[in-house]
Amino acid sequence: MAREFSDRERELVRSLQESIPLTPQPFAEIAAQTGMDPGEVLELVKAWKADGTIRRFGAMVRHQRLGYTANAMCAWDVPDERVDEVGETFAAAAEVSHCYQRPKAEKWDYNLFAMIHGPSAEDCERVAAALAEKTGIASYRLLYSSREFKKISMKYFIE
Amino acid sequence: MDETDKKLITLIQADFPIVDRPYAAIGEKLGIGEDEVIDRIRTIMESGEIRRLGASFDSRRLNYRSTLCAVHVPPEKLDAAVAAINGYHNVTHNYERNHYYNVWFTLIAPSLERIDQILREIEQRAGIGPVLNLPATRLFKIQVDLPVIDG
Lengths: 159, 151
Hints:
With about 160 residues, chain A is an alpha+beta fold.
């Protein structure tokens, strides 16, 4: 999976992680900035999309402003031998945007995380209760964000 | 926002055309001109509904490591802790949450060593800790596209 990125490729990453120009030929403009051929930029972007290096290309929206007013980080205590099956079940739910297994820690007895989105906290709670019923995992809690201290897109290759 | 704006947002969220003249291609799908597409996107971006139009990279494919961190911060140390944490460009999200571990942030760095180093620095600078380091050991779902809904 790991591969090296050339200086020009790093430059292209730096450019694409900003907003692309709102001009008729944005990729040609980026190509000019990075010293690449316009066709080369289009081919690289397509290749990176295809191999997953670019997870998504397009508009990044503010979900909270577009109607998803509540998001709950739901943390579950799932027996190790059931993590695979329960994780797949959570992942299949449309309201779950992210689902990860993570290690437990001191005063933190939860190992499966599911981000649940909904119009309200009650909707998130209903989704979590339904998932609990479906999987039989009764030990869970929902953590809501009461304040957002920071939300940015990561900038790569700048250190 | 009118119906065309909503369709436009949905379209450019999920399927932005990687072609020489993408705004013209989007306009064709919506039945409007290239200039109008550009004007509408500019207006939506100014309103803040769209925060960026570009690429979202998979940190792992760029050889970066990421993790989720949690820390208990008493109220009198909150400002200093947030300042210490947010000071790193490696911290992309940082929220206050309703738990004993009340500050949760995501951290992305070129190596595991750098992640450890940053966490120790945060603990020292803010006089807090220990910071829990909870890297994902398995990914079941990463979905960043959510449809536009009314509200």
